[in-house]
């Protein structure tokens, strides 16, 4: 399947070449939770499943879709923030740290 972003990705190919491959790009920006375990597919924020097509419209339509999108996007942000804390890339203390 040709990516609908192929033209833009090709336009910025010199930037993406810095990483060598998609997996390195994902790891560098700590985006691991956006892909499936085998790293073969990107996960949808609507249902968490692998994206297999790019149907129109490319946005949520119903309130329940918006709720699912919001919950899944917040889960991603939390997982990424947890990864940053585990890697000690943030000077901000974790929410579980006690202050005196």
Strand and helix map with partners:
Elements: H1 6-11, H2 13-17, H3 22-28, H4 63-86
Quick recap:
The chain has 100 residues and is mainly α.
Please describe what this structure looks like.
The chain has one domain (6-86). The chain is mostly helical and 100 residues long. 42% of the residues lie in helices and 0% in strands. It is built from four helices and no strands.
General shape:
flat
Low-confidence stretches: none
Structural class: mainly alpha
Helix content: 40-55%
Q: Compute the separation of the termini in Å.
A: 55 Å
Main attributes of the structure:
single chain, about 100 residues, mainly alpha, about 0% strand
